Amino acid sequence: AQSVTQPDIHITVSEGASLELRCNYSYGATPYLFWYVQSPGQGLQLLLKYFSGDTLVQGIKGFEAEFKRSQSSFNLRKPSVHWSDAAEYFCAVGAGYSTLTFGKGTMLLVSP
Amino acid sequence: DADVTQTPRNRITKTGKRIMLECSQTKGHDRMYWYRQDPGLGLRLIYYSFDVKDINKGEISDGYSVSRQAQAKFSLSLESAIPNQTALYFCATSDPDRQETQYFGPGTRLLVL
């Protein structure tokens, strides 16, 4: 069965600083990988996804993520964080014709 | 208009009551899902449906039931609500032609007293 670990429950970043959120997955084959963001009081919005090809994927709002098979990781990055990025971020793993498994989330706090 | 809608958005009920949460979608997807979100636990899958005639239990189906009335509608019922079912509930749809990307509704916040 697939699983996802987001090691950081909370992260605080200063506005304008760079961000990296960690995600490690467990799956026997090449997975589909996703990052979703949940702003306060909102549903989940897809930031980006990886399923094949270039291991560095670009998403919305200036986010990117890199798939590293050797490390079973799919970390999310942003070069300069804005206050509006404060939200909860979820990593998810799946495979063709199956359900997704979500991590427990990382809450991002942005300090002025 | 939103592609995935959920009603109600907020609900307060009492222990032992039966309630239904409804989900509708205009995306034309065959696959639909119900999740619950609890602080620190992320999203956990309750039930999912890959088409109108296909219903499957997820990770935490006990105490819940579902009905897939049409391709566009997927309802979640709590037959006899209990306080530990207080949570945020999300409906989602997915497109197998887009690597199972899931699209979420806005959520229903349920409080069981």
Word description of this protein:
The complex is a heterodimer of chains A (112) and B (113). In chain A, strand 8 (64-68) and strand 9 form a beta hairpin. Helix content of chain A is 0%, strand content 52%. By secondary structure, chain A is mainly β. The termini of chain A are far apart. Chain B has strands at residues 4-7, 10-13, 19-25, 31-38, 42-51, 54-57, 64-70, 73-78, 87-95, 101-104, 108-112. The interface between A and B is medium-sized, with 24 and 23 residues.
H and E string of chain A: EEEEEEEEEEEE
- Helix-strand category of chain B: mainly beta
The average pLDDT value of chain B, as a whole number, equals 93
Overall pLDDT metric of chain A: 92
Quick one: how many beta strands of chain B? Answer: 11
DSSP, total strands of chain A = 12
Major pleated sheet of chain B: 7 strands, mixed
Query: Mind describing the biggest β-sheet of chain A?
Result: 6 strands, mixed
The number of helical segments of chain A is 0
What is the terminal-to-terminal distance of chain B? 33 Å
Strand content of chain B: over 45%
Point out poorly predicted stretches of chain B: none
Oligomeric organization of the protein chains: heterodimer
List low-confidence stretches of chain A.
Answer: none
Rg over alpha carbons of chain B: 13 Å
The percent range for strand residues of chain A is: over 45%
Secondary-structure element series of chain B = EEEEEEEEEEE
Shape of chain B: globular
